[in-house]
Amino acid sequence: MKRYIIILLIAIILAGCTIKGTKGTQWEIDLNLPLLDEKYPVSDLIDNENIFLNESDSTLYVETKGDINTKRIEELAVELDSEFSVNHLYSTLNSFPGSIPFVSILPDYTIEVVAGKIESGYLILNLNDIVQETHDATAKIVFNEIYTQEGEHFSPAIDISQFGSFEYRFNLADYVIKSTDNIMEGNSINSLSFTISVTDNQGNPGMVDYGSLNIKLSDMIYFESFLGNIDGYYIEIEEDLANVEIEYPQNIDDVVIIEDALVELNLTSNIGFSTIFEGSITSYNDKGDSIRIDILDDHGERFTIPSADIELISNYPVTQPVDYQFISDEQIDYLFSIMPTSLVIKSSRVHVENPADGYGFISTNHSIFGDYTGNIPFNFSLQDSSVPLITDKDTIANISQDNQKIIDEYCQSAELELRIDNKLPIGARLSIFIHSVPLGNTVDSLYEATLYFNGDDIDDDGIGDGFYVEAGNNSETYKISVNNFEVFINDEIYIKFLMYADPTQEPVVITGTVDDYIKISGSLKLKVLMQS
């Protein structure tokens, strides 16, 4: 027995314990058992996927990125009610003038065309031949504002060689409409002028009437591109530009209000019109709350994306893309008043805006594209709240078999010595829970622990028996009742912390340098009375 005690004392001394004195065959020993030494650096939050470090000032921020694209411009259409009739195709008809109205009657938007490349549409000629005897003639129409790709006037011809009624359809795809060769100095086209001539291929003397001719354009003319003006036209942006998912530490959504969040849009437009962005951001949380705000500039107006630069290549307009950046920061904070778990940019489109002078240019292959960035800095206010913040995982302390035996058989008194180095600008009340089995993540489960120091309670002396944490170094010692010694007679004990954050008078900024952390150290101080 004596030999065992001597070996045990040597082990205790080597473990850092001190012998306070002896009384006869009794040994009074102070035993110091380290329980925990946990450091929680802020920099551990940085994953460079969702949470980043601002290199200029070392602040932390949450960031999400995504793409923005307008939908494909499906059509640039002109709806017409245009026709012109020639009642008599006389054999002597030569350079007879006429014109077809070219005015859009679309209900949603109107187009004023100075020059345009046709994607689809038809010229329709209906001939009613009233001559019954044998004849051979040709009717030719020369359009002054419709050109081939080679710059020649569009000049369809029809054969008049037999009796009857006939319809001729000419595909206008790839033809160009323009009022003058110098497109940029042209005027809007309100009608398509033309001349009609008839050639008698048999050389009949006198005036022969070959019938009547009705000239019209198809009801819809679609443009691949055009120079001019357009009113009431908008382009949809792909739905739900961004769906930002946000995760917060447990319960923090009830005590924190985030400041200085922003949404940044980096856009490129190759549309030769300025466009007005119409969109909104809606925030949602897990409680079913939502807030919607319009994306507006600092003046409360929808922001305008500048027109792409227009230039001529082979005497036809093209655009050079223009970049534009928009940052919305003054209203975004309002979205975080409900501590959202998701943000969605939605219901977005751009309205085409005519220039103050001159004309714009648009093509079906034009678009607005780019990316968005959602930036949520770790700049927040803590509100007065009783909602606790619970650490996710248990801290596990190991108790050796020898120390378990000492605590079980020889321990006279025990204290928990706790030290916290708080390098963050936040104060809090800290509760400590110790149990022989893993602890849960709810407040109720924590109070099933064998031993706890509740920072939310006041003892009989009017002094809080929990731990108040200020910025800087904090230390405290707590006496442990003999009835609670049994929790330490286990190979492993489980420790969890519960924090009640103090409200801040103003927003605080969290940085992620090596000097920003919370460190919790603790040891079990035992007074052991042993005898040989």
Key words describing this protein structure:
532 residues; mainly beta; six-stranded antiparallel sheet; 4 helices; 41 strands; 6% helix
Write the layout of secondary structure elements.
Elements: H1 2-14, E1 18-23, E2 26-41, E3 51-53, E4 60-69, E5 77-79, E6 83-86, E7 96-101, E8 110-120, E9 122-129, E10 137-143, E11 146-147, E12 157-160, E13 164-171, E14 176-178, E15 191-200, E16 212-217, E17 220-231, E18 234-236, E19 242-245, E20 256-258, E21 262-269, E22 274-284, E23 290-294, E24 304-305, E25 309-313, E26 316-320, E27 322-328, H2 332-335, E28 342-353, E29 360-363, E30 368-377, E31 379-382, E32 389-390, E33 395-398, H3 401-410, E34 411-422, E35 428-435, H4 443-446, E36 451-453, E37 467-469, E38 472-480, E39 492-501, E40 508-509, E41 517-531
Antiparallel strand pairs: 1-2, 2-41, 3-4, 4-30, 5-17, 6-16, 7-15, 8-14, 8-17, 9-13, 9-16, 10-12, 10-15, 11-14, 17-29, 18-28, 19-28, 20-31, 21-27, 21-30, 22-23, 22-24, 22-28, 25-26, 31-40, 32-39, 33-39, 34-38, 34-41, 35-36, 35-37, 35-39
